[in-house]
Specification:
Layout (H helix, E strand, L loop, with lengths): L3 E3 L4 H10 L7 E3 L15 H16 L3 E10 L20 H11 L9 E11 L8 E11 L15 E3 L4 E2 L5 H7 L1 H15 L1
Parallel strand pairs: 1-2, 1-3
Antiparallel strand pairs: 3-4, 4-5, 5-6, 6-7
Helix pairs in contact: 4-5
The chain binds inosine 5'-triphosphate (ITT) and magnesium ion.
Pfam family, one: Ham1p_like
Cofactor: Mg(2+)
EC number: 3.6.1.66
Length: 197
C-alpha cells in the first residue's frame, strides 16, 4: 500500500523524484498508477498550480500528496515562459516544440544576455483539505544556448547551459543534476521540513 502520491504526469520529473525521495523510506506512487489525470493548471503562480495539483491527487486517492510546479524564466523574455513552460509552443506541445519556440524567441538576443533560471515549487499535503501545506521553492541559474546539447534530463535541459559545469543540464549525470538542480534542492528542503513535523 503506497503511503504517498506524486501528483505529476511528467516522466522526467517522476524519474528524478523517485531517486530524490528514496531517503524518505516511503512507498511513493505516481498519480497515473491510480488512474488520476492531471489537474487543470489555472493558477497564475507556481505555488497556486502546485497546490491545485497536490489537492486534486490527494482528493482522488485519499493519500498524502506531493506536487511540483516548475518552469523556466528567461530574463530577456521578462520571465517567460514561466508557469507556461510546459505549454509554451501550444497546449499539446512536446519538449522539442518548446525548445524550438524558445530559440526563436531568443533569436536576436546575443550571448551574455541569455540568462535564465528554473524554478521549482513543491507542495506537500497530508490530505486534500490540509490547511497548512508544506511549501518550498528553489531556483537554478543558467544561460540559454543557441542550439541543443546533450541527451539526458528533459524539457529545456539541452538548452540550459551551466557555466560552472561547462555543460548543459542534459549533459550532467542524473546524480549531478539532482545534486544541483532546483528540484533536487527543493526536495531536500522538503525532506528537512517533513523530518521536523
Ligand atoms: O504538471 P505535471 O504533471 O507535473 O507535468 P508538467 O510537465 O506539465 O510540469 P509543469 O506544469 O510543472 O511544467 C514544467 C515545465 O517546465 C520545464 N521544466 C521544469 N523543470 C525542468 C527541468 O528540471 N528540466 C527541464 N525542463 C524543466 C519543462 O518544460 C516542464 O514541462
Ligand atoms: Mg503541468
Amino acid at each position: 500500500m503506497p503511503s504517498l502520491v506524486l501528483a505529476s504526469g511528467n516522466a522526467g520529473k517522476l524519474a528524478e523524484f523517485s531517486q530524490l525521495l528514496l531517503p524518505l523510506g516511503l512507498t511513493i506512487c505516481s498519480q497515473s498508477e491510480f488512474g488520476v489525470s492531471g489537474a487543470e493548471e489555472t493558477g497564475l503562480t507556481f505555488v497556486e498550480n502546485a497546490l491545485l495539483k497536490a489537492r486534486h491527487a490527494s482528493r482522488q486517492t485519499g493519500l498524502p500528496a506531493i506536487a511540483d510546479d516548475s518552469g523556466l524564466a528567461v530574463d530577456a523574455l521578462s520571465g517567460a515562459p514561466g508557469i507556461y513552460s510546459a505549454r509554451y509552443a501550444g497546449p499539446d506541445s512536446t519538449d522539442t516544440d518548446n525548445n524550438t519556440r524558445l530559440l526563436q524567441a531568443l533569436e536576436d538576443v546575443p550571448s551574455g544576455h541569455r540568462q535564465a533560471r528554473y524554478w521549482c515549487v513543491l507542495v506537500y499535503l497530508t490530505h486534500a483539505d490540509d490547511p497548512v501545506p508544506l511549501i518550498v521553492q528553489r531556483d537554478w541559474q543558467g544561460e540559454i544556448l543557441t542550439s541543443p546539447r546533450g541527451a539526458g534530463g528533459f524539457g529545456y535541459d539541452p538548452l540550459f547551459y551551466l557555466p560552472d559545469h561547462r555543460c548543459t543540464a542534459a549533459e550532467l549525470s542524473k546524480e549531478d543534476k539532482n545534486h544541483n538542480s532546483h528540484r533536487g534542492r527543493a526536495v531536500r528542503d522538503l525532506i528537512g521540513l517533513l523530518s521536523r513535523t
